[in-house]
Write a structure and sequence with these properties.
The structure is a single chain. By secondary structure, this protein is mainly β. It is built from one helix and ten strands; from the N terminus they run E-E-E-E-E-E-E-E-E-E-H. It has one helix spanning about 155-180, and strands spanning about 15-20, 25-35, 40-50, 55-60, 65-70, 75-85, 85-95, 100-110, 110-120, 130-135. The strands form three sheets. The protein has a four-stranded mixed beta sheet, with no helix packed on it.
Length: about 180
């Protein structure tokens, strides 16, 4: 619904709606998805901070570069193209090297679009965790087309088919002439 309560037409746009915050303050977080196909050998990934008591975080490759920086509660990192593979990620307190959550073994497959949600509580139950979600998958075209066995190169078969078509055409022409003569 729009701001005035009227229905809004949603065409050709994918959305994700996430319930966030504590139960007494629960609200929807509406995300616009970009489910376009990643380039060959790539996956797309974004991050959503859905932990109400966790401070802003940086999402980084474990011991490596930051992928999404200073993401606050209800904040979202834009989709990022990455090489398909398995990564050890970590949520660090924004601007520091202090790891708030380790996320080992995140498998990102080629042609797939992901959202990783930080959920739960930093200081309570349920415990803070990362939940990866597949937004879309795109299968890559094969490098070579499979052999189906449906093609023949026998020239005599082609001659026989051509002769059969000629006979059908001749018969049709003969019938047409007989109809014109009557």
């Amino acid at each position: 619904l729009g701001a005035n309560g009227e229905p809004v037409e949603m065409t050709d746009t994918d959305y994700t709606v996430v319930a966030v915050d504590m139960l007494e303050n629960i609200e929807p977080l509406v995300l616009i998805d970009n489910n376009g196909a990643p380039a060959a050998g790539k996956a797309h990934v974004r991050f959503v901070h859905a932990s109400p008591d966790a401070p802003a975080v940086d999402i980084a490759v474990a011991g490596g570069p930051v992928l999404f920086s200073n993401v606050p509660f209800k904040g979202t990192g834009d989709y990022l193209p990455v090489d398909a593979g398995t990564y050890d990620l970590e949520a660090r307190l924004a601007g520091t090297d202090t790891v708030a959550l380790s996320v080992p073994g995140v498998a990102l497959e080629e042609g797939t679009v992901y959202t990783i949600f930080a959920m739960g509580l930093a200081g309570g139950e349920p415990a803070l965790t990362a939940v990866p979600s597949v937004d879309a998958t795109h299968e890559a075209m094969p490098e070579t087309m499979p052999t189906t066995g449906g093609v023949t190169t026998n020239p005599w078969l082609l001659v026989a088919i051509a002769a059969g078509l000629a006979l059908v055409a001749g018969s049709f022409a003969l019938r047409t002439r007989k109809a014109e003569m009557n």
